[in-house]
Design a protein that fits this description.
By secondary structure, the protein is an alpha+beta fold. It folds into four domains: 44-56 and 308-406, conserved putative lor/sdh protein from methanococcus maripaludis s2 fold (Beta Barrel); 57-66 and 212-307, Elongation Factor Tu (Ef-tu), domain 3 (Beta Barrel); 74-101 and 178-205, RNA polymerase II/Efflux pump adaptor protein, barrel-sandwich hybrid domain (OB fold (Dihydrolipoamide Acetyltransferase, E2P), Beta Barrel); 104-169, Helix hairpin bin (Helix Hairpins, Orthogonal Bundle). The chain is 28% helix and 34% strand. Strands 1, 14, 15, 16, 19 and 20 form a six-stranded mixed beta sheet that branches. A six-stranded antiparallel β-barrel has the order 2-9-12-11-10-13. A four-stranded antiparallel beta sheet has the order 6-5-3-8. α2 (103-138) packs antiparallel against α3 (144-177). The N and C termini lie far apart (100 Å).
Length: 408
């Protein structure tokens, strides 16, 4: 009986100790929670929106074409005696290219010259006869018919002289056509005929083609939708086209390198291609080293104008909602986060051109967006753009056709 009492007392004291120990532990936990400091506000880096002056450009694909093209064709029939140029070389205007056998043309020239001389030789005798007949007719020594026949013979001889003069000139021209010369300066291609070939006047197949490559044309199509958008911007005052270098055009070659010389926008066509819905812009580029060849694919960077009130923000400061609409987080005057929906115009390298949604002075979050939400108070820290890389919140990469050159 005494043993049971001892066991009961031991169990009782153990329960009391356990209760006290649990209370102490709970009390210690409550005290530690009350002693923790409040969580600090998340840090974010921002940029302040400022208006900038940028030069708007459009990158358009195009192809080169020769400044002038001359297809060489014979103007008389004959046999090619000699080709007088080297294929693929540069030729000057007036340089001899082919020699057609001149013998028949020389014979025709001599024949016309002899006939002309004969007609001119008889002219003086016939003119004297007319004068004598007129004197004799005055004294009724000859009949009216004899006088009229003499006058008619004189007029026929004068007409023969004019005819043979024309024949002589034609023969002289044909003899000149026997030597085919270059009508323009440029680079000549391959010859379609060899020595001994028989050619005909104005044949459909050209003997060779000369192309002037310096300067050279670049024809680029511009969609009518883009043209109308550009006109609306100009009329709305968002774009200034009065710059001195408005017509300057840059060129990107097929390998991605920039052409060293700039071109001049010559004109914009007034006819829309119904198949492509575009108009042609013609640009003239100097090509002294013949880097540009006819038919090359290039990309022309054409200036649209100057936007004097552009808003540019880094791409990492733009995210998208579940529908793909662009948005930005800004810090208001109370240091709290607000959400703004944006309207983006185009990309400029690592920046977006914003056409609506932001105003000068807005502080856009570019770092730490993933740690905040609208209404949360934040702490602003300096933004180092040199060390910043684009994060996942910036949305998908965009490679637009249009680009912008320029800055603040």
């Amino acid at each position: 009986m005494r043993l049971n009492e001892n066991v009961y007392k031991s169990f009782k004291w153990n329960m009391v100790l356990a209760t006290l120990l649990g209370g102490l532990l709970l009390g210690g936990c409550d005290g530690s929670e009350r002693s923790q400091p409040p969580r600090p506000a998340p840090e974010v880096a921002v940029i302040t929106v400022q208006l900038q002056k940028v030069v708007l450009t459009t990158e358009l694909p195009g192809r080169t074409s020769a400044f002038r093209v001359a297809n060489i064709r014979p103007q008389v029939n004959g046999l090619i005696q000699k080709r007088l140029f080297v294929e693929g070389s540069d030729v000057k205007a007036g340089q001899a290219l082919y020699q057609i056998d001149p013998a028949p043309f020389k014979a025709a020239l001599n024949n016309a010259k002899a006939a002309l001389d004969r007609a001119e030789a008889s002219l003086s005798a016939i003119r004297l006869r007319v004068e004598r007949y007129q004197e004799l007719f005055a004294v009724k020594a000859v009949s009216q018919q004899d006088c009229d026949d003499a006058v008619a013979a004189l007029k026929q001889t004068e007409a023969d002289i004019e005819y043979w003069k024309a024949m002589f000139e034609t023969a002289r021209i044909n003899l000149g056509y026997a030597r085919i010369t270059a009508p323009i300066s440029g680079r000549i291609g391959k010859s379609s005929v060899t020595d001994g070939a028989l050619v005909t006047a104005y044949q459909p197949v050209a003997l060779a083609t000369i192309q002037q490559l310096d300067p050279i044309y670049v024809d680029v199509p511009q969609s009518t939708a883009e043209l109308l958008r550009l006109k609306r911007r100009i009329e709305g005052g968002r774009l200034d086209q009065n710059g001195a270098s408005q017509k300057k055009v840059k060129l990107i070659l097929e390998d991605g390198t920039e052409y060293s010389l700039k071109g001049i926008l010559q004109f914009r066509d007034v006819t829309v291609n119904p198949t492509t819905g575009s108009v042609i812009l013609r640009v003239v580029f100097p090509d002294p080293k013949y880097i540009l060849l006819p038919g090359m694919f290039v990309r022309a960077v054409v200036q649209e104008g100057v936007n004097n009130q552009a808003i540019l923000i880094p791409q990492q400061g733009v995210s998208r909602d579940h529908k793909g609409n662009p948005l930005a987080m800004i810090v208001n005057e109370q240091s709290k986060v607000e959400q703004r929906m944006l309207t983006l115009d185009r990309a400029i390298g690592d920046k977006w051109l914003v056409s609506a949604g932001l105003a000068p002075g807005d502080r856009v979050i570019v770092e730490g967006m993933q740690r905040v939400r609208p209404g949360v108070a934040v702490k602003i820290v300096p933004f180092n753009k040199d060390k910043t890389k684009r994060g996942p919140e910036a949305g998908p990469d965009v490679q637009p056709q249009e680009k912008i050159d320029g800055g603040a």
